[in-house]
Amino acid sequence: MLNKDHPRYESLLYRQKIVDAHKNGILADSGMIAHGRGETFDYLIGEKTTANSLNTIDIASCYFLTRKRPVLSVNGNTTALVAEDIAELSSLLDIPVEINLYYRTPERIRNIERVYKNLGVKELLGTDDDDFIDTPDLNGPRSPVSIDGISKADLVFIPLEDGDRAEKLAALKKDIVNVDLNPLSRTAVTSTVTIVDNIVRVMPLLIDAVRRNEDVDRKVLLEKIDSFSNRENLDNAISDILKRFE
Ligand code: ATP
Ligand code: MG
Fold first, then answer.
1. Would you identify the CATH topology of the domain 51-243?
2. Model pTM score
3. Which residues, 6+ apart, have CB-to-CB distance to 32 below 8 Å?
4. Which of 63, 97, 217, 230 is at a distance of 20 to 30 A from 19, taking alpha carbons?
């Protein structure tokens, strides 16, 4: 049992979710290591949502509300931590969830599929019933992508994604919204919009932002998108980390 008075209660709670997901066949071994890398950067960021992150979340919501076919692409870590929020965002925007695993096995796909079906997700792609094409030039088990999912999408949300795949998606001219605590990762640098923050804090704020901007004029949303620079956003995130060392 976790003690609520523990100064690192939240962090321990999420570690427990990661451990449980690993036990339940949702998370690969390497997913546990990826979580640790995330924790390190979260420590440096101060384990809170910065003003810069809040602004980037707002921009991400503008993308979701102005693109024709966004897709929420999820892996084991995202499922372990925020499956409920993913289901809620999918229902709010009426967009599909695509399962995309770095280490794809039929068993893990089935386990993750069950999580989202139980949460009532209507359009679930990337399951073994789906039709696949290969992401060009990307070899290995994470190369297949759902035809209905990513290949038709104009915007892909790829939280906690690996750099190889992000680079290939960018080469396919997709807009990419990413959540990554590491502002230096290849995924962070390659994406159109990188939210440098913990996915567990981002999802509720992203859902709020979509609700807030839902009825805002499209022109206003597009203007906000135009004024955003991801490079500037990443530089702000890096300088926020540096300030913590002063
Ligand atoms: P890249 O391949 O993009 O250069 P990487 O190899 O460090 O980076 P991966 O292990 O492939 O990254 O992907 C995991 C990424 O997800 C890491 O950058 C890690 O910081 C980030 N991450 C892990 N947990 C979280 C979390 N809870 N919220 C946000 N980001 C996270
Ligand atoms: Mg990587």
1. Rossmann fold (3.40.50)
2. 0.94
3. 18, 19, 22
4. 97
